[in-house]
Amino acid sequence: MVLGILTSIAACPAIIGTTEAVRQGQKQNSKQAHRSRKANLQVSCTDPSSRAKDVNGGWIVLRDGKLWATNTNPKAKYPAETWEKQQRMDHEHLLAGYFFAYPGNPWGKRGDGYVSTISDDPPQLNWIYVDKDTYEVKYGLKADAEPHLCGPWTVSPIDRRLTFDGWEGFTVVEEYEDEWALYYDVDDDGLEEKVPADVPIMEIELTRRELRMKKGDPIIAG
After folding, report:
1. pTM for the whole thing?
2. Where are the stretches annotated Disordered (predicted)?
């Protein structure tokens, strides 16, 4: 009897260790499931300028090889004098992105690559990357992305805000009137050598908003 009790006591640490390993494995699986779900990116801008309303609460869209922050309904119609703007808006695609292992995994546990749909019909994916020369955030095929900064991408632990290379340096630059292109301030200097001083710039945060789950989608408990 005493031997049995001692054996049970000796086994407790192993049992606890196994239980903890299983729990950690479940958490990891849940984390990976969340990272592989498509999500839009919602924009938050607290810049004191009145221009913040152009993007705050809006969304990231893809257009002409670049990412843009907008509060404009892509289906809205514009007066004839803004025909060129209408043509640009007609080609926008709402980002639906998720994390994806980049070939060779150059960043280890620091993060992954990031991909997004670029069309719904037919469904197509592109890599999201930061142009190493201009610091614009762009999308393209692997051949387009590979010479540039492709990651690591991940999220903040609580609010799930998007991060790149371990921090948040997302910035928008007004490239057309009321149209803001997404940049990443790699040098953390306000894009001093990348954007002319008279061009409006604002810092933003990007929060992942998972797409609504549909009937039949897999449910993974965390």
Report:
1. 0.78
2. 26-49
Split into its structural domains, the chain has a count of 1
56-84 tens-digit pLDDT: 999 999 999 999 998 854 444 444 445 45
Name the residue range of residue 136's domain. Answer: 39-210
Mean pLDDT of the chain: 82
Closest CA to 174 of 75, 45, 78: 45
CATH code assigned at 62: 2.80.10
Q: Is residue 191 part of a domain?
A: yes
Looking only at Cα atoms, what is the longest distance across the chain?
A: 92
Distance (Å, whole) CA 25 – CA 23: 5
On whether residue 27 sits in a domain, the answer given is: no
Residue 206 within a domain: yes
In a domain, 220, yes or no: no
DSSP assignments along 77-146, one per residue: ---GGGHHHHHHHTT-EE--EEEEPPTT-TTGGG-BEEEEEEEETTEEEEEEEE-TTT-BEEEE-HHHHT
Average pLDDT over residues 13-35: 52
Tokens of 132: 């190493």
For residue 64, which of 41, 87, 44, 43 has the smallest C-alpha distance? 87
